[in-house]
C-alpha cells in the first residue's frame, strides 16, 4: 500500500482512539504531538537500521551472500548491536512515557480535586521498563522477516552469482524502506502499539491513585480489523489490580507490554472505569 494510504488509515484509527480517551483540547494537542514525535523518531531509527544492514551485506563476498547462516549473523549483529538497542529504548522512553503520564494525570484530575499525579510513581517506571522489553521482540520480528526474504532469494537463484544478486536486491529494497521491516508501515505498527499501551497503562494508574475507581471494563475497538479475542473481551470487568483474560494472555490493560505480541500489536481497544 502507498505511504499516503497508510497515513490516512493511521489517522482515521488514531482519531477514533484519541476520542475514546476523552481528553480536553490542550491535552489532546499535546498527545497528538507526542505521538507524531514518537512515530517520526521510530521511522528515523528504522531507516538507519535498514541502511546499516545494507552496508554490512554489501561487504560480504558472493560466497557468503548465499550462505543463510552468514546472513543470519549479519542480521543479528546489526539488530542486536548496542547502537540500535539503546536508540530504540531511548526513543520508546522519550515518546511514550509522557503519554502514560498525560493519560494518568488527566484521569486523576477528572476524578479527584485533592490528589495530584506524581511522575515519580513506581508504576510508571515499571511501565517504562516493560515497554522497553518490547524492543528485542521488535528486532526479532524484523530479523525473521529478512531471513525469510533472503531464503526465498537463495532458492530462486539458479547460479551462485544470480543468488547473490537477488540477496543484494532484497537488502537494497529493505534499506530504501520499499520492502521488509524497515518501512513506514512498521513504524506505524510500533508507535500505535506503544501509544495504546501508554494511554491505557496511564489510565489504570490514574484510577488507582484516585481511590474512587475500583474496577475496569474492557472496551474493544469497533471495526472489522478488531481481533476476535478482543471482541470477545468487550465488557469484561475486572478489579483494578486483576488482569483481563484476552485470548491466551492475561493483560492488565489493552496493549499491556507484558502480554503476548499477538494480543497487543496494533490493538486499539480502551477501557471504562468502574466506580464504587
Ligand atoms: Zn484490541
TrEMBL record:
Region described as Disordered: spans on this chain: 214-236
Domain Phage head morphogenesis, first and last residues per copy: 148-271
A Pfam family that the UniProt record links to this protein: Phage_Mu_F
InterPro entries: Phage_head_morphogenesis_dom
Name the UniProt record assigns to this protein: Phage head morphogenesis domain-containing protein
Species in which this protein is naturally found: Paenibacillus monticola
Amino acid at each position: 500500500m502507498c505511504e499516503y494510504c497508510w497515513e490516512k488509515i493511521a489517522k482515521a484509527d488514531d482519531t477514533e482512539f484519541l476520542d475514546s480517551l476523552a481528553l480536553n483540547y490542550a491535552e489532546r494537542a499535546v498527545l497528538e504531538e507526542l505521538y507524531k514525535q514518537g512515530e517520526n523518531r521510530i521511522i528515523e531509527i528504522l531507516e538507519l537500521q535498514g541502511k546499516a544492514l545494507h552496508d554490512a551485506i554489501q561487504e560480504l563476498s558472493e560466497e557468503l551472500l548465499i550462505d543463510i547462516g552468514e546472513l543470519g549473523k549479519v542480521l543479528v549483529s546489526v539488530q542486536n548491536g548496542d547502537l540500535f538497542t539503546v536508540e530504540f529504548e531511548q526513543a520508546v522512553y522519550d515518546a511514550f512515557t509522557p503519554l502514560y503520564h498525560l493519560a494518568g494525570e488527566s484521569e486523576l484530575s477528572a476524578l479527584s480535586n485533592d490528589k495530584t499525579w506524581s511522575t515519580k510513581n513506581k508504576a510508571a517506571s515499571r511501565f517504562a521498563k516493560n515497554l522497553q522489553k518490547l524492543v528485542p521482540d521488535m528486532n526479532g520480528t524484523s530479523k525473521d522477516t529478512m531471513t525469510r526474504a533472503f531464503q526465498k532469494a537463495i532458492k530462486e537463484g539458479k547460479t551462485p552469482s544470480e543468488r547473490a544478486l537477488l540477496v543484494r536486491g532484497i537488502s537494497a529494497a529493505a534499506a530504501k524502506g520499499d520492502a521488509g521491516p524497515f518501512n513506514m508501515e512498521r513504524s506505524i505498527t510500533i508507535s500505535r502499539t506503544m501509544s495504546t499501551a501508554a494511554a491505557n497503562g496511564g489510565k489504570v494508574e490514574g484510577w488507582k491513585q484516585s481511590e474512587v475507581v475500583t474496577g475496569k471494563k474492557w472496551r474493544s475497538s469497533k471495526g472489522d480489523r478488531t481481533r476476535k479475542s478482543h471482541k470477545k473481551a468487550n465488557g469484561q470487568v475486572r478489579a483494578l489490580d486483576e488482569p483481563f483474560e484476552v485470548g491466551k494472555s492475561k493483560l492488565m490493560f489493552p496493549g499491556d507490554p507484558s502480554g503476548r505480541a499477538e494480543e497487543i500489536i496494533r490493538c486499539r481497544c480502551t477501557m471504562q472505569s468502574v466506580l464504587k
